[in-house]
């Protein structure tokens, strides 16, 4: 059992921060949120670099002062300390865990780069009051479409990425799809299975709590 409040350093609109917040909510773990405004380069201050040597977010500080960075590493820790509460994000079966890992890890090169390219142009730059580049956006969309087609076929066979249960593989994708559903919803046109997956994931109470967290957190300026 977690003895005291964990501290999460991040930014509410950060997709990686949202992964951790959803996992904490899924496992019913209370936490203190410390806002790190990346638009003001607060992640590059000496104080924060002492927490994360690469000057990024999020970072989870445990009750004994231990620091964990990288969102997926943090989520794995959260699942490990409360495996029986909420969704089992990493299954106990080695075979099932491998299926979760394969769909989580492949996203780092087949999904994330193109998705992040889209998100920077459609969500991050407007908040930072920077001009978007239509050519970069178009390139990101072009790169992402083959992966979305593969996901569409997969999710026509099962409800979630690694089977019929919500896992880390779904959580790792969800915040990015949430942004793209708001800014580039036409990417879901003709992809009913992917859209149904999105609706199943966003219907979870833990995601509803993420939405409330974003609405109530300090605003980005």
From TrEMBL:
<dbReference type="GO" id="GO:0006749">
    <property type="term" value="P:glutathione metabolic process"/>
</dbReference>
<dbReference type="Pfam" id="PF13409">
    <property type="entry name" value="GST_N_2"/>
</dbReference>
<dbReference type="GO" id="GO:0004364">
    <property type="term" value="F:glutathione transferase activity"/>
</dbReference>
<dbReference type="InterPro" id="IPR040079">
    <property type="entry name" value="Glutathione_S-Trfase"/>
</dbReference>
<dbReference type="InterPro" id="IPR036282">
    <property type="entry name" value="Glutathione-S-Trfase_C_sf"/>
</dbReference>
<protein>
    <recommendedName>
        <fullName>glutathione transferase</fullName>
        <ecNumber>2.5.1.18</ecNumber>
    </recommendedName>
</protein>
<dbReference type="InterPro" id="IPR004046">
    <property type="entry name" value="GST_C"/>
</dbReference>
<dbReference type="InterPro" id="IPR010987">
    <property type="entry name" value="Glutathione-S-Trfase_C-like"/>
</dbReference>
<dbReference type="GO" id="GO:0005737">
    <property type="term" value="C:cytoplasm"/>
</dbReference>
<dbReference type="InterPro" id="IPR004045">
    <property type="entry name" value="Glutathione_S-Trfase_N"/>
</dbReference>
<keyword id="KW-0808">Transferase</keyword>
<feature type="domain" description="GST C-terminal">
    <location>
        <begin position="93"/>
        <end position="221"/>
    </location>
</feature>
<dbReference type="GO" id="GO:0043295">
    <property type="term" value="F:glutathione binding"/>
</dbReference>
<feature type="domain" description="GST N-terminal">
    <location>
        <begin position="4"/>
        <end position="86"/>
    </location>
</feature>
<dbReference type="Pfam" id="PF00043">
    <property type="entry name" value="GST_C"/>
</dbReference>
<dbReference type="InterPro" id="IPR036249">
    <property type="entry name" value="Thioredoxin-like_sf"/>
</dbReference>
